[in-house]
């Protein structure tokens, strides 16, 4: 009996300690697992005459990921910054950045914090996913329980994953993003399968 009781406590802790995604959460559409498809949904926190999301590619046509409506009289020929957000490698096509025109002047947003500042208040689900991406959290299309969301007046809550150091092991998180400030809170969880 002495050996059975600790085993029962351990098993019950594993079973009851796992969380099931609440019924009021909806599945995140698979298309939102591609960061480049999130940019058109950005509603910047400030008014810009023009803005675009670019990758560091010397070919201007290949560099553009997304651009807002450009006024006819505006031409921006600024060189790419040396670093950007979502840095994957060194060389070309390794990172992205935002180039915006504010009061007739070019302005770069070239790291994850600057991208969050550019977004400002979180207006929609794609912006929330993009904010979470800047902290390393990802939509998991391979697990039906792994990527869900709920939106209310004050927060957008997401069940997302983060890859561990081996890049194969997934850790599940409940993410809560304040819609007004963009502040993110994350809690590691076990998801019941």
Give the helix tally: 4
Going across the major beta sheet, what is the strand order? 1-6-7-8-9
What percent strand?
25-35%
Spatial separation of the terminal alpha carbons: 30 Å
> Residue-averaged pLDDT, rounded?
84
Question: Level of helix content?
Answer: 10-25%
Ranges where pLDDT stays below 50 over 5 or more residues in a row are: 4-17
Rg, alpha carbons: 20 Å
Helix/strand layout:
Layout: H1 4-17, E1 26-27, E2 50-55, H2 60-63, E3 64-67, E4 96-102, E5 105-109, H3 112-119, H4 125-134, E6 148-151, E7 155-163, E8 170-178, E9 184-189
Provide a concise account of the structure shown.
The chain is α+β, with helices and mostly antiparallel strands and 193 residues long.
Report on the structure:
The structure is a single chain. With about 190 residues, the chain is α+β, with helices and mostly antiparallel strands. About 20% of the residues lie in helices and about 25% in strands. The protein contains 4 helices and 9 strands, in the order H-E-E-H-E-E-E-H-H-E-E-E-E. The chain has helices at about 5-15, 60-65, 110-120, 125-135, and strands spanning about 25, 50-55, 65, 95-100, 105-110, 150, 155-165, 170-180, 185-190. A hairpin with a 3-residue loop joins strand 6 (about 150) and strand 7. Mean pLDDT is about 85; it is low at about 5-15.
Which features does this protein show?
193 residues, alpha+beta, globular
């Amino acid at each position: 009996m002495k050996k059975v009781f600790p085993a029962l406590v351990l098993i019950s802790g594993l079973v009851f300690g796992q969380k099931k995604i609440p019924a009021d959460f909806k599945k995140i559409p698979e298309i939102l697992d591609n960061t480049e498809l999130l940019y058109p949904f950005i509603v910047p926190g400030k008014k810009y005459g023009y803005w675009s999301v670019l990758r560091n590619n010397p070919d201007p046509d290949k560099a553009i990921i997304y651009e807002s409506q450009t006024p006819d009289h505006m031409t921006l020929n600024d060189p790419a910054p040396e670093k950007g957000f979502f840095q994957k490698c060194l060389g070309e096509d390794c990172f992205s950045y935002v180039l915006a025109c504010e009061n007739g002047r070019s302005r770069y947003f070239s790291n994850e914090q600057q991208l969050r500042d550019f977004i400002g208040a979180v207006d929609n689900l794609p912006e929330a996913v993009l904010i979470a991406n800047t902290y390393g959290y990802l939509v998991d299309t391979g697990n039906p329980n792994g990527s869900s969301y709920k939106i209310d007046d004050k927060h957008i809550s997401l069940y997302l994953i983060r890859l561990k150091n081996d890049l194969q092991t997934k850790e599940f998180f409940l993410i809560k993003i304040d819609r007004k400030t963009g502040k993110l809170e994350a809690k590691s969880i076990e998801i019941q399968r």
